[in-house]
Amino acid sequence: MHAWPASEVPALPGKGRDLRIHDTATGGLVTLDPGPVARIYVCGITPYDATHMGHAATYNAFDLVQRVWLDTKRQVHYVQNVTDVDDPLLERAIRDGKDWVELAEGETALFREDMTALRLLPPQHYIGAVEAIPGIVPLVERLRDMGAAYELEGDVYFSVESDPHFGEVSGLDAAAMKLLSAERGGDPERPGKKDPLDPMLWMAAREGEPSWDGASLGRGRPGWHIECVAIALDHLGMGFDVQGGGSDLAFPHHEMGASHAQALTGEHPFAKAYVHAGMVGLDGAKMSKSKGNLVFVSKLRRDGTDPAAIRLALLANHYRSDWEWTGGVLTEAEERLGRWRAAVSRPDGPSADALVEEIREALADDLDSPAALAAVDRWAARQAAEGGTDEGAPGVVSRAVDALLGVAL
To answer: In a 3-state reduction of DSSP, which class is residue 271?
Structure first.
């Protein structure tokens, strides 16, 4: 599966700061020191609706992570998956009278268009669950053969008790885990499971649903969590720097995935930091496909909204905060974009050297994008009120905003 084209990232003078970021597993800030190549895995979409503002906010956050790392003169190895076969996708295809493959391909294509418009840096490896199945099957077989998985009526389940570190990613107790498991695709009430929290690794073929050859597992399709594990282990290995996604993925998805990988390899941790973006709401509720309360990037683009304004609307909120999308949020972003473009269109201006360092400092401090925007606002206000004599300043600001915030002025 191919990703989307990369926009050029301008090189800035000097060097950025190492990133301090909130790690869900420890509950505090950690300073990441990836070495010359930083490794990041971000969980991708299930393509039955793409791309709403919740998606955009999440991927924008991890785009900032990449930009901070690139500014430290590191390379970035970024991997993202597409869950292109799953129950919600199949259910939507039936509801809409579409072929599930056609639905997945169409929504994935739209997602690529949105990511390109928002100038989000693409992954080096963009892998669909279906194409990963040949690598998933041996992992499930290995877990079963080592006693970390078991069969139940043809399905294969992972035994959470096989990983002594189970529970360390989310920090939740068993009762909270059981509740969230039921809400987020698990089946804690299924009779015969060793533990209600045990997640499915391989679903035996169901009538009328797609299935693939699973060798000794029989025909079927993979569970949700093992998909990302297989892709991450194949392309990044154990102990990569950041596992990212929305806050609703901390449990069960990231918890279960970490345990799968740790049981398979005997190593810990799966990722050095688990980083989660907040939820975006609309009309007082989390924006989600199941509720149908979605604001789509593609719809805004079709209505003539500048993608740079959409990106600024996302950047105005700290990535870990839960926030509400309103028309006012977009209006403020459009006004800010206009002020910034007017400021950099002049032939000279106030010195921008300190501004570049302010943006760097803000982003290195747990991706504090609101503070970065405020710094640019102050420079633009000085430009409007006083002007300046530094002929290179507007160009420096334009390049810094592009390189660090992904906004083209």
So the answer is: strand
pLDDT at 282: 84
Q: Hey, what are 29's tokens?
A: 């800030």
Cα–Cα distance, 296 to 299 (Å, whole number): 5
Domains of the chain plus CATH, in order, are 20-286 (3.40.50.620), 305-405 (1.20.120.640)
Residue ranges of the chain with pLDDT lower than 70? Answer: 284-292
pTM attached to this predicted model: 0.95
Rg (CA), the chain: 22
Tokens of 11: 């090189």
Report how far residue 17's alpha carbon sits from residue 408's, in angstroms, rounded to the nearest whole number. Answer: 22
Distance CA 399, CA 407 (A): 9
Of 127, 76, 83, 77, residue with least CA distance to 236: 77
Type of residue found at 42: V
Tokens of 315: 């950047």
Sequence-distant (6+) residues with CB within 8 A of 208 are none
Separation of alpha carbons 135 and 142, rounded Å: 11
Q: What are the tokens at 162? A: 């096989």
Closest-CA residue to 19 (of 81, 79, 76): 76
Q: What's phi and psi for 89, nearest 5 deg?
A: -65, -45
In the block, which residue shows the tokens 């989000």? 120
What's residue 289's pLDDT? 61
Phi, psi of 364 (to 5 degrees): -70, -20
Instruction: Please state, in angstroms and rounded to a whole number, the distance separating the CA atoms of residues 255 and 264.
Output: 14
Q: Closest by alpha carbon to 107, among 59, 50, 187, 29?
A: 50
Residue 290's pLDDT is what?
61
The residues, any chain, with a CB within 8 Å of residue 374's CB and separated by 6 or more, are none
Q: Which of 110, 108, 91 is nearest to 100 (CA)?
A: 91
What is the DSSP code (8-state) at residue 52?
B
Cβ distance 85 to 210 under 8 Å?
yes
